[in-house]
Design a protein that fits this description.
Chain B: Its cofactor is pyridoxal 5'-phosphate. Chain B: One of its GO terms (biological process) is amino acid metabolic process. The structure holds two protein chains of two kinds. Chain A folds into three domains: about 120 residues, Sufe protein. Chain: A; about 70 residues, BFD-like [2Fe-2S]-binding domain (Arc Repressor Mutant, subunit A); about 80 residues, GMP Synthetase, Chain A, domain 3 (2-Layer Sandwich). By secondary structure, chain A is α+β, with helices and mostly antiparallel strands. The mean pLDDT of chain A is about 85. Chain A contains twelve helices and eight strands. Chain B folds into two domains: about 240 residues, Aspartate Aminotransferase, domain 2; about 130 residues, Aspartate Aminotransferase, domain 1 (Alpha-Beta Complex). Classes of the chains: A alpha+beta, B alpha/beta.
Amino acid sequence: MWDYSDKVKEHFFSPRNSGVLEDANAVGDVGSINCGDALRLMLKVDPDTETIVDARFQTFGCGSAIASSSALTEIIKGKKLDDALKVSNQDIADYLDGLPPEKMHCSVMGREALQAAVANYRGEEWKDDHEEGALVCKCFAIDAVLIEETVRANNLTSVEDVINYTKAGGGCSSCHENIEEILTKVMAERGETFSPHAVELKEEAKPSKLTNLQRIKRIETILDSIRPQLQRDHGDIELVDVDGKTIYVNMIGACAGCQMEAMTLQGIQQRLMEDLGEFVKVVPSRAGSYARAASHV
Amino acid sequence: MDGIYLDNNATTRVDDAVVAAMLPFFTEQFGNPSSMHSFGNKVGLSIKKARMQVQELLGAEHESEIIFTSCGTESDSTAILSALRASPEKKEIITTSIEHPAVLALCTHLEKEGYKTHFLKVDEKGRLDLDEYAKLLTDKVAVVSIMWANNETGTLFPVERMAEMAHAKGIPFHTDAVQAVGKVPIDLKTSKIDMLSLSGHKLHAPKGVGVLYLKRGVRFRPLLRGGHQERGRRAGTENTASIVGLGLACEQAMQHMAFENTEVKRLRDKLEAGILAKVPRAFATGDVSNRLPNTSNIAFEFIEGEAILLLLNKFGIAASSGSACTSGSLEPSHVMRAMGIPYTAAHGTIRFSLSRYSTEAEVDRVIQVVPEIVAQLRKLSPYWGENGPAEEPEKAFAPVYA
């Protein structure tokens, strides 16, 4: 049984705004019957103010697809079209107190239905380029198509590359066999052979001894390079302090209190260790201040 | 626990008498059956008795043909890999497209290691084409593995006949009988079946114990080597309590065989007929005239299975679905796809599987609840109109990237 939040269950058992909206002037049909999800979003838009006066949906799909549709209509009602378009799939998931990684695509479908409906209202054609493959990384909800395309576009050659570019495989690591298979396939297309040991053989540059200032600047640079990934998920990180081997950081936005926070921190710590060439510990600063307070007693 | 449990093909309740028979083997009878002292000796005798109880249910000729394993999957893997290792020059496997993942995923994996697997197709009722099968039986084939009964639809396959056909060509034959054992009569001594897998928890024994039947004289290569347990064919200290439990469960299954095929079957038929009479655009999948007595798989068109299960669960009813969403994959059940069931119906398949514990009152309750649930979800579905499917549903609702 899926670990659905109470909010998801509640919206599934008593969906808001379901059924046909008779005088809708914006309709978006999206979904894939092959995957077992399809959604029709119907909006009534006030032409003078471009405000969504009413929203209804019809959904063929699982519990979280129905709950996501219900949540979407609740979120966008009363919003102006341009504001509604800013609603991300993460917003829908957050509204429902989170969705299991396998089910994040349900919230994506909601956002796409919204885009399609707005395009329909404005007389534009909405085209979706999104193709979904089998879920490979369950920790970060990354599917095979995305991994394949990323490996192809960036000429990736190792599981580590895939983790750095897509996050896939960066959690529990049980999908590494699948990732290796994707690498083998895509590398064969460009006439290369995947070798799991290639990375380990790479010569490791010994970092020279840094001054404190150089070291902190280096840490800042590394964090800056990770930042875009976090911001893509509506989060951020800031450096608070460096105390010997311990690096104190603040997780901001969606990263703060995210279920994946520990995993994200672990990934960041790994990156820092690799780049600095030394062992370091990354600690969220509040926990850090507690620890420091305790050590001064 | 209260509730209506109609998911017995997934797993079953351990019978109370089975639990009672097992308990002493955790405490007083904890000895290792391999030990020389009397702590172990009695345990050894109990395992012997269990072996004979399994032998009886399977109609095996010799008690030594029974090998205890940890589960059905281990038995399947042991059987198939043994046949391959025994004939390393043969590089082909014959199985079906509707096997349990225990066989399917192994065969798909073996393809990467250079084996060619023939996945027999099925027709719209899930039946195999024996002419296609006959043509594939060549001297390149190392093993045939065909399930006795399908776990999703309950459809039975003519494994005895297929074993004879393989035997005539000198090819070893394995059957995954995990769903069939205890529900249909089996008499292996009169068959040409070389290997058979079963799983304890499907017949009211505990999880974590299974059996591989290995006909005397069949060439065998163990999967696990080590100690001399199971005559060196499956090393590892015996799961004594569970083996004893499985033995008793087999004896009970033998006693309930007639009941299973009369009373349980009657309840299953009543459930299916009751639902189909009240719900439009629903149909039973599989070969309904030739299937397990306890299984009914119904496709509800234009709605999705996980949503049905969640609502059933709200009423305390447990079943399962071939929908993609219940597994976390994006494709609906490979069994439904193999039978050519359209996506709009395949995603809405629900499997009800009964047991000897199922009651008339439970069946009546499910017949009452299911039509309400289906109507509730169809109201939400873009493929469903006022009182029936939207006219030409595929056209009325054609999403952008369908």
